[in-house]
Each structure stands twice: as structure tokens, then as C-alpha cells.
Design a protein that fits this description.
The protein starts with a strand and ends with a helix. The chain has 324 residues and is an alpha+beta fold. The strands form 3 sheets. It has a 7-stranded mixed β-sheet. Helices cover 30% and strands 29% of the residues.
Length: 324
């Protein structure tokens, strides 16, 4: 009997449009002979099933079911394609775990921890994971720019702490620009992390559970045509994403070991993609993504393809692992 799979997409953050694209790719890719796939749009104002005629049917939040032409549909598994809140920060995970409904992402606590950049980096430091120097600011704090510069130097990055796709990020070169950069970041989150600039090769490392085993995918080197790997570089083709990365074997081995260690230490499941910059030959962690982009042009699917894993196999494996 075919499994009913709810593909959740959209979300409450600036990443909703990217999420809709990821979710659509999952919907189009899943084997229709094995799965009944349902596109579920999650927005603050509505949770709805959207059929192929763009008709909308409201989701019953009591049990995450939907009534379609007087037939109640329940789901065997949820495929999480929501980037940002509430799909990547633990809220949907907690909801599904209360309903005892399997889902393809990591658990609630792991999602909340990894989505909070400063908490995640702080949790990993005792395990020897190297990171940039950082300075934390909350909305309403008085900020001493000289103190910031003394800690992280210039140039530096001002980032929204809980946001993705480079929303709320500014590279700052002058002391006078810190205030404006904070304003940009605070539009996305009420917590900000200011980090030192790391000048080196940037790489992205996908780690997944595949056929029951933690698997490190081929490494991608990121070469931005812009000042850094910003939204345009990520989604508008203004970068080169080179898989496999042009690293020597020692560097590649080092970053693979660290990425796998992060996956184990944080007790992750499902997809993950960790970002690093090499400084003095050592990979420094920038962040961990647990609901990475899933379009054909996205980094993790590129890495899977290099490893000989098709999109169909990648997505089906995520469902199989969730149903375990």
C-alpha cells in the first residue's frame, strides 16, 4: 500500500519562497508508484493542502489531517522542506513529535540548537570545533563599537542569529557602519552575532544518514563573485559551487572528520549541511543547516549527485529513515 507523505513548505521567515521551490522539487521527484505526495503550505495565516489545480483545503491542526471532498486524509510521514521558522527551529518538530508523526528532519531540541548560531557554536567549542571570534548583541543593548572592534576586528560580519539564506547579514569595513548593519540584522531577529572575518577557502559539507549509516557527502567549495556568499551568490548564480572541492587530501580528510563529528556530537538525524572556512589550514565552523536547500541546483543535492545518489533516492531514503 502506498504511503501518504505530507511535504511541508513555506514557513514564516524570509526564506518562504526558497522553501516553496524546495518542496515543489520533492513533490515532483518522489516516486508516485510508492508514495501519495501532498503539498502542504505552512504560513502564519493558513495551513493548507494545495492540490494540482491550486485548490486549497485547510489542515486540521488537532491531528494534522485534511478533509478532501468529504474524505479524511492522514499522513504516514512528513517531509520537512521548510527553511527557517517554524520548520528549521524546532517548532514543527515538537508538534509532530507530540502527534507521534514521523518526520524527515532532526528532533526538536537539535533543530532549535542548530538554528541558533551562537548557541550551536558555543555548544560545539568544548569538543574542539574551531570558530570565528564572536560578539553577541540583543535588541535594546547599548553597543560600544570600539569594544566590538577590539573583540572581532575589521572587517567583520554582522548576522541575524536565527536566520538563513544570508538574510540579515552585512560585511562591515568601518566602525561607522556597525550601527546600520545591526539595524539590518534586527529586521530578521532580535538576537545578533558579530563575527571576525575569516579569509580563506569556504566549503560546505553535507552529512546524512543513508541506508542506516552516517555518510559524509563530497565537499563543495564556494567561490562567490560578490563580497561574500550572500543571497545573490546563493540563489541568483553569482557564485561558483565546485564539487568536489579543490582541497588537498589532508584538508579534505580533516573537514570530513569534523563534519561527521558535529553530526554525532549534536545527535543529528536526516539532512545536515555544515559551512566552514579554512584559516591557517584549519576548518572553522560558520553554521549548521538541518533543512538545507533541496532544488537540483542546491548544494546538498549536488553533493549527493557527485556521490552517485539521485534526487529520488535521496528523498526516498529520508522517508525510509524517518519511518524507522
Amino acid at each position: 500500500m502506498k504511503k501518504n507523505i505530507a511535504i511541508i513548505m513555506g514557513g514564516y521567515s524570509s526564506e518562504y519562497d526558497i522553501s516553496l521551490k524546495s518542496g515543489q522539487v520533492v513533490y515532483e521527484t518522489l516516486d508516485k508508484n510508492k508514495y501519495n505526495a501532498y503539498r502542504i503550505h505552512i504560513f502564519k495565516r493558513k495551513w493548507v493542502f494545495v492540490n494540482d489545480f491550486d485548490e486549497e483545503f485547510p489542515i486540521d491542526k488537532n491531528d494534522f489531517s485534511v478533509l478532501v471532498n468529504e474524505t479524511k486524509i492522514t499522513f504516514d510521514c512528513v517531509f520537512n522542506a521548510i527553511h527557517g521558522s517554524p520548520g528549521e527551529d524546532g517548532f514543527m518538530q515538537g508538534y509532530f513529535e507530540l502527534l507521534e508523526l514521523p518526520h524527515t528532519s532532526c528532533s526538536m531540541y537539535q533543530a532549535a540548537l542548530t538554528f541558533n548560531k551562537r548557541d550551536c557554536l558555543s555548544a560545539l567549542k568544548p569538543y574542539g570545533i574551531k570558530t570565528a571570534e564572536s560578539f553577541f548583541v540583543n535588541l535594546g543593548d547599548q553597543v560600544d563599537e570600539d569594544e566590538v572592534i577590539k573583540k572581532v576586528g575589521l572587517p567583520c560580519f554582522v548576522k541575524a542569529n536565527r536566520a538563513g539564506s544570508s538574510f540579515g547579514i552585512t560585511k562591515v569595513y568601518e566602525k561607522e557602519d556597525i550601527h546600520n548593519a545591526l539595524d539590518v540584522a534586527f529586521k530578521e531577529d532580535d538576537e545578533v552575532i558579530i563575527e571576525s572575518y575569516l579569509d580563506g577557502t569556504e566549503v560546505s559539507v553535507g552529512v546524512i544518514t543513508y541506508n542506516g549509516k552516517i555518510t559524509v557527502l563530497p565537499i563543495t567549495e564556494i567561490v562567490s563573485n560578490n563580497d561574500f556568499f550572500d543571497y545573490k551568490a546563493k540563489y541568483l548564480g553569482e557564485s561558483q559551487e565546485i564539487t568536489p572541492a579543490r582541497l588537498d587530501e589532508a584538508q579534505a580528510k580533516r573537514v570530513r572528520v569534523i563534519a561527521k563529528k558535529i553530526y554525532r556530537v549534536l545527535r543529528l538525524t536526516g539532512f545536515s549541511r555544515s559551512e566552514f572556512i579554512f584559516k591557517d589550514g584549519e576548518p572553522h565552523l560558520l553554521e549548521v543547516n538541518t533543512v538545507p536547500g533541496l532544488t537540483k541546483a542546491s548544494i546538498l543535492p549536488q553533493q549527493a549527485a557527485e556521490a552517485g545518489i539521485s534526487l529520488s533516492a535521496l528523498f526516498e531514503n529520508a522517508i525510509i529513515e524517518a519511518l524507522k
